[in-house]
Amino acid sequence: MKMVKSLVLAGLLAFSPALGMTQTAFAQDNATAAAPAAEAPAPVAAAPAESAAAPAAATAAPAEKVAAPPRMKPTEGIGMPMPGEWTIQKQFTDTGRQALWMHNYLLMPIITFTSIFVLILLAWTMFRYRRAANPTPSKTSHNTLIEVIWTVLPVLILLVIAVPSIGLLADQYKPAPKDALTVKVTGYQWYWGYEYPDQGIPEFVSNLQTEEKAKENGEPYLLSPDNRLVLPAGKPIKLIITGADVIHSFAVPSLWVKMDAVPGRLNEKSFTIDKPGVYYGQCSELCGARHGFMPIAIEALPPAQFEQWVLSQGGNPKGKAATPATTAAAAPAAAPAKI
Ligand SMILES: [Cu+2]
After folding, report:
1. Mean pLDDT of 220-235
2. How far is ligand 1, taken at its centre, from the CA of residue 270, in Å?
């Protein structure tokens, strides 16, 4: 009897790979077989983790070789406000320049002229037609010519403003071209998260730098975060902007960018930065206690250096090659070591 049992056992073991089910059933009966059986699920469970980690490891491999380009020093007065400044910052995008031109050479002259003209009219009327100088006022109530002028002139002024204004508005909302670099920007209470889905760079967070660190780096304290949003200069960029908790607003004045970050909604902003540099901004929608402490810094690099940065973050500069699993698996706290 014992021999028969041994033979059956030997047979089962010999055919075990083919008889998986039988072996499992057998394992339940046999205490000694239970140990390997218990171990068996381990590699199975580990497999998805391994496969998820594989692209990360594959893309991360060059990370050890490629160093991130050195942190760019900001230029005084470029991409940041300066003490005593009272007008719009110098612009570094097409729409920005267009808007600045419109503000400086169209709106401001019209506003200034209209205000001064009305002020002079008012002052003249008050002085010339005061009771002492003009005891018997005119009874005139209509004057066709004047009425036509003060109707037509404002209409013409409004038309002069409306035409370039509508063009500018359309330009500001122009969809990004197909080859634009996409970055997902998420506003959190109270920091920003940046993710490069096409390059396979998972979200990293950007938090206010300490005052000492900012001083050490020669950066404006309340405007400078630890991790910057690194972008290529001269290439179209598409930001997909959203909020994780409350409404924030992603604003960089010198790039003419201001877009609300609304939870449950994806807002889009596209632009091309003229030249390399550091451009500062801030959250511009009151979002809670530390609203004033979630700065934005865009570091625009020459394309070659940007590719180097992407490689240094374990991403693929050519884009589209990374699997979504890589980005999905990464925790938001996985910040790159670029401080
Ligand atoms: Cu905010």
Report:
1. 93
2. 20
C-alpha 188 – ligand 1 centre gap (Å): 7
Dist. CA 250 → ligand 1 center (Å)? 8
Q: Using CA atoms, how far apart are residues 285 and 292, in angstroms rounded to an integer? A: 10
Distance 282 CA to ligand 1 centre (A): 8
Amino acid of residue 45:
A
Cα(229) to centroid(ligand 1), Å: 16
Please check the confidence at residue 112 and state whether its pLDDT lies above 60.
Answer: yes
Report the candidate in 114, 116, 230, 238 with the shortest Cα–Cα distance to residue 175. 238
Q: What residues contact residue 187 under an 8 Å CB cut-off, 6+ apart?
A: 193, 241, 242, 243, 244, 245, 247, 248, 249, 250, 261, 283, 287, 294
What's the CA gap between 79 and 89, in Å, rounded? 7
φ and ψ of 112, to 5 deg = -65, -50
pTM summary value? 0.70
pLDDT tens for 246-299 read 999 999 999 999 999 999 999 999 999 999 999 999 999 999 999 999 999 999
- In sequence order, what are the beta bridge partners of 193? 186, 205
